[in-house]
Structures are given as structure tokens and as C-alpha cells.
Amino acid sequence: YNLETEKDPVVIVISTTGTGDPPDSARKFVRKIRDTTLPPDHFAHLQYGLLGLGDSEYTFFCNGGKTVDRRLQELGAQHFYNTGLADDCVGLELVVDPWIDGLWLALKEAFLLQKGKEGMSSNIDAVPSSLAADPHIMHELNLSSEVQNLKLEDGEVRNSGVLTQKLVDINLVASTEDAEPSLVHSVPPVSQSALNIPALPPEYIEVQFQDTHGENPHLSSLVSEGTTFEVPVTKAVQLTREDAIKTALLLELDIADTVFDYQPGDAFCVICPNNVNEVEELLHILGLSEKGDCFVCVKVKQGTKKKGATRPQHIPERGTLKFILTWCLEIRAVPKKAFLRALAECTSDAGEKRRLQELCSRQGASDYTRFIRESNVCLLDLLHAFPSCKPSLNLLIEHLPKLQARSYSVSSSNFYQPGKLWFVFSIVEFPACPTRAVSRKGVCTGWLAELVAPLLHPSKNTLDAKGGSPLTEKISIFARPNNTFHLPADPSVPFMMVGPGTGISPFIGFLQHRQKLRKEHTDWEFGETWLFFGCRHQDRDYLFKQLRCFLENGTLTHLKVCFSRDSSTAEVAPPKYVQDVIRLYAKEVARILLKEGGYFYVCGDKKHMADGVSDAVVDIISVEMEVDKLEAMKILAMLREAKRYLQDVWS
């Protein structure tokens, strides 16, 4: 299709990435429509509906969708259906499901109006456009479209919009003992409801097993975002004490023999594998343990009903089964409802099948949120919980998403220590719980921790026979430059940094860079620098005690620290969190941000810290400028727009 001439309704679904940017696949399109030479009636012929996907944990919520929506409106396009903005923070399906339900009616109306304009209202299927606005007719159309689109092609109940009561009693026997619902048990009303469940997605992948001869693709072929570099890990330091709640590690990479370059504040991505034991366990459950080293050829199934079916781009044409499960598929992904629907068809036990149908149904939406989404359940958890579920390999390839590279903030300056790259991370822990039988570590942080264990605890077995130094492991990385989270271009401009926990990471790079500049340019004027750092315990997880060195040599003007779990004997308890400390320096914050044109950087956890910091800054602006809170929020929004209040946050 061509949007320049398209007369039929267009449906756009767009996510948001980075700091409110459109996804990579939409950048070319967004660049095109942002062309300021386009006339205001450029898309006057176009009618569209837009669904934006975002996460309100981040500042620029659904900005990808909002940008496209706003620009299409400016260029004369018309909505045939209201824009939907779905929030991953509370569950995309809360907006997505009703938006899709309403889409069919809106499309019907749009086509009816179109036919009316084209003089085709005599068509048997068409409702005269004069009646299109009649609420009774619209209600009937709505009902028929809902029934039509919620038809369930199920082995036991065909051509029905709902699963009937016949299946219900099977599960009641198991669930009456449990007053509380769980991943595997439901209670009324869900257990007694007829269910609206999604249509079964058509299968479209075919997997052919081949011999064990050949080589797997190079990891660089899995990355479309740019050049990949294989670099050695030359140093690993545990920054926290053994009894700290979280374990934080600093890793040093040697990039001297590469053209990899970065600025303090940039991020980069690590290509990581799934856990070896989890891959083996999955192969065992699938009954494919013997086939792990066999090469598989992945093709589109002939005669599939899926329109425009293609082999997923993240799956190589040829690779071993183990390679695909290790490097290509996110086996830890939280299963989407369509996947649960497909898994239900592979489940032989009637009670287990019913529960999987409940979890993907509209009636079981809150159970899905509670026991799947919020519990961070993955495919392995489901296969343990529902042992009669035996999915095929092609189903996994169809439904599991691409194993994404993990992004980390750079914690060093290439100017200060050329050829070296530091980064800091906490090892993510998922403790065992009712929905997860075993505890797990984060996919990438767990792998990295295991990889560098010999560097952290050298022993005779891990030492290189020649030099006596630990054997060097290599990891594959690629650049992910940050366009905004950088030091001010003018060194005389003051700035404040807020980075509790591992949020301090980019600021170590900032300070290294500033120290080197001060040493090399003694005649330059440098603005004052503030750092607000916080952690749980001063003696367990104060990550960079050498911050004092930056303070002593003048690189850092002010260092303010707080410890949230340390007890105090002082009459007035010291502040626990960085947002509390910032309030103590309200006048300085206001002076730097509002009078001296300074910068304010925040890095770390979004929900529990960054929001608290921005609330504190709003209150400071309100008090110091004697304006109401709404006006203060507008001023902060202007500072964000001017790229002087900058965040590098994660949820």
C-alpha cells in the first residue's frame, strides 16, 4: 500500500523506545512525515486509527504513537476511530483488548460511509449511511461483530463465541478445596463462567531436523542494530559486601583493539545467552534432549492460513536446536495470551486445559495479571505447573520473542582511560514463589556473574599456565549511543547528578572525564558539580568510596550521601533517600536550575526513586519561585524539553 494515495482506512500500531522515540522499524516513516515542506492537506485523503503502546513508568509515555498521531492530524488526516494509548505498567491488554473489540465496528462504519459516498448503499450487506448513526443499529452491529470475532474454533465446542458450561465442572472438583485462586486453580466466578477466549492463532512455522554437521551462525548475524565487537573482560570487582541485599559488580572490558567508541553517559548492549540448565530442561520436557546438536531448518509452513507469514528474522535459516534455544529465543518471556491459547490446545488434561483457557480469557484477565504478568512467569514455569501441556517446537518458535541484548550504562571515560570500558550492574534475583518452583538470576546478569567468577575468585584451576593470570573470557557488545544524557558542552555550566545504587554508574564516567579535562585545561572555567548518592548500608553497599578522591581533587564540588537502612542515634534522624536530601538543598537546586542555566541528571530506578526526585524538584520550584504546583510542573516540563533535566531510568 501507499499512504500517499490510500483511500481505505489505515490501522497503525506503534510502540515507544528510548526517551520517547519511535521504534527502529518506524524511524524512516516518522522522518518522512516530519518533513516541514509537506503541505497541510498532504494526507487529507487518509482516514486512520492508531494504537500506541508505552509504559507510564517512563517520562515520554506513548510518545512514538503521539508523535505520529499529531503529525498526521497536522497534515490533514482524519480519525475513523479514537486513538488508544496502552500502558505496559498496568497491563497493555486493559486498553488493547477493548480497542480491538471496538475496531471492527469502527471499520464497518468507515466502509459503510465510504460505500455511501461511492453510491453503493444498495449493496445487500450495507446498512444505509443515513441509519449508520442510529444507536440501536450500532449496538446490534457491535454485538454481531463481537460474536463474529470472538468465535472459538475449539475441539469440543465449535462455532461458539464462548466456551460453554460443559467444561466447567471438571475444574470445580480441584478448586473447591482452594478458597484462593492460584496459577493452576480458579475459583468462582471465573471457574463457573462461560469464557470469551482469543481465536486460535494459525500455525505457520515448519521445523525440519537435519544432521549434526556444520557451524552455527556468528553472533554478529543476530544483531541488526550495528557493528558487533567481541571484547575480553579484563577485570571484575565486587562492589558490595557479601551480606548486602543485592550484589553489585564492576566489569572492565578491553576495547583497545577495536574501533568501538563511546562518551560518558552512553549505553551499550551485551549479547547474552539463556541459562544452559534451563535450555537443557526445556529440551528434556519437549522430549528433544537427543536432538540438541542437530541442525534445524526453519521454514514457513505450506498452506498456512496466516497472512503474510515469514520466518521470524531472529531465527537463522539453519542452526542447531540448542543454538536457537540458547541465543535466539527469549525463553524467560512472560507468555502473551495468544501463546496461552495455543498452549491450551497442546494440553491433554481437561482441568489443566480449562485453566489455561481461563488465563487467556476476558473473564480471567485479573488472574492473568496476578499469576502470569506480575509473577513474571515464563514458559518453563507453565510447563511445570501444567505437566500435560506438550507444545511442539514450531509453536515455541512462533510465539517466543527474540532474545534481546541487554543494555547497560557506561561507567567510565574513554578520554580518562583510553581503551577501557567499565560498567556496573546488580545481579537480578527472582526468588522462588508459589508460581515459580526455583529461584533464578537475571538472564544477562546471572550469565555475566558466572562468566567472571574466576576473575572474582582466582584459583589454580582458572589460572593461565603461562602467565599465572586468570583465563580471559570474551563477550559480544554493540554500541547504543545516548543522544542527550551527556555532560554539558560548556564546562563552565554547573550541574547536579542524582544516582543512588547502580544509578551512580554513568556519573563515574562524567567525573573521570571532568577530572581529565581539569588536568589538561588548567585555564578553563569549570562549573560546580553536585552528586547525590544513596544506598541501604554505608558499610555494605556504598559502591564507590573513591568518590572522596573526586571531592578532594576538586572535580566534585559537593557530595551528599544517605543510607536508607542504617539506624541513627542522632536527635534528628538523617534523610533516608536521595529525594529527601535534595529537599535540604532547595535553594541550591533552584539557583543552579533556574538562575544559572544548569543541568540536572537522574539515573536509576524509575518507580521508587526518579518519580520521587521529580516530585521534590517540582516542590522546590513551587516554593522558591512562589508559584502553584501546576505552574512548577510546567517549568519542569520546559526544562525536560530544553534537555536540561535528563533521566536515564529503568523500571
From TrEMBL:
InterPro entries: CysJ-like_FAD-binding, FAD-bd_FR_type, Flavdoxin-like, Flavodoxin/NO_synth, Flavoprot_Pyr_Nucl_cyt_Rdtase, Flavoprotein-like_sf, FNR_nucleotide-bd, NADPH_Cyt_P450_Rdtase_alpha
PROSITE patterns per UniProt: FAD_FR, FLAVODOXIN_LIKE
CDD domains per record: methionine_synthase_red
Gene3D superfamilies: 3.40.50.360, NADPH-cytochrome p450 Reductase, Chain A, domain 3 (1.20.990.10), Nucleotide-binding domain of ferredoxin-NADP reductase (FNR) module (3.40.50.80), Translation factors (2.40.30.10)
Keywords from the UniProt entry: Amino-acid biosynthesis, FAD, Flavoprotein, FMN, Methionine biosynthesis, NADP, Oxidoreductase, S-adenosyl-L-methionine
EC number: 1.16.1.8
FAD-binding FR-type domain residues: 226-488
Acetylation listed as a keyword: no
EC class name: oxidoreductase
Any one Gene Ontology cellular component term annotated for this protein: cytosol
Signal sequence segment: none
Highest taxon of the lineage: Eukaryota
Named cofactor requirement(s): FMN; FAD
Listed GO MF terms: [methionine synthase] reductase (NADPH) activity; flavin adenine dinucleotide binding; FMN binding
Residue ranges annotated for the Flavodoxin-like domain, each copy included: 1-104
GO BP annotations, alphabetical order: homocysteine metabolic process; methionine biosynthetic process
Protein name, per record: Methionine synthase reductase
